[in-house]
Amino acid sequence: MSILKDKREAQGYTRETFCKTFGLIEGSVINWELGRSCPNWNMMERIMEAYGIESDEDKLQLLAELIENSNK
């Protein structure tokens, strides 16, 4: 389970539309969602805004998942 994927889909983005909207390479988004890499802090702010992640609980859940995945 990936909070990034869940939130992206909840906002109605496909990977393709998200990448086009934000000028990203699809492989980067795939790697973030699979926990292979993490977006930088500037991109995290853009992602949280685009995905409607506003509550502290959701922000902490997202960050905890990214940290957990980066330690694998």
Describe it.
This protein has 72 residues and is mainly α. The protein is built from five helices and no strands. The chain is 69% helix and 0% strand. The model has no long low-confidence stretch (mean pLDDT 87).
Helix amount: 55-70%
Largest sheet descriptor: none
Number of helices: 5
Question: C-alpha Rg, in Å?
Answer: 11 Å
N-to-C SSE string, H for helix and E for strand: HHHHH
Based on Cα principal axes, name the global outline.
Answer: globular
Spans of at least 5 consecutive residues with low confidence: none
Span of the ends, CA to CA? 15 Å
Query: What structural category arises from helix and sheet content?
Result: mainly alpha
List keywords for this structure.
72 residues; globular; 69% helix; single chain; mainly alpha; 5 helices
List the helices and strands and how they pair.
Layout: H1 3-10, H2 15-22, H3 26-34, H4 41-50, H5 56-70
Write a concise synopsis of the structure shown.
The chain has 5 helices and no strands. With 72 residues, it is mainly α.
